[in-house]
Amino acid sequence: MGVLGAGGERRIWDVVVVGAGPAGASAARVAAGAGCSVLLLERAVMPRYKTCGGGLIGHSQTALPPGLNLKVYETIGSFTFSHVGRRQRSLASSGRRPCLMVFRDELDAALAEAAAGAGAEVRDGVSVTGLAEDGLVTVRTSAGPVRARALVGADGSASRIARHVGVRYEQTDLALEVEVPVGARAAEGWRGTAAFEWGPLPGSFGWVFPKAGICTAGVVAARGQGEATRAYLGEFLARQGLDGETPVRDTGHLTRCRHPESPLTRGRVVVAGDAAGLCDPWSREGISFALRSGMWAGEAAARMAGEGTAGAEQAGAEYAWTVRSSLGAEMAASRQVMDIFVRRPGAVHGALTRAPLVWRMFDRYMHGEATIPALMGHPAARAAVRAANRLL
Question: What is the pTM of this model?
Answer without folding.
Answer: 0.93
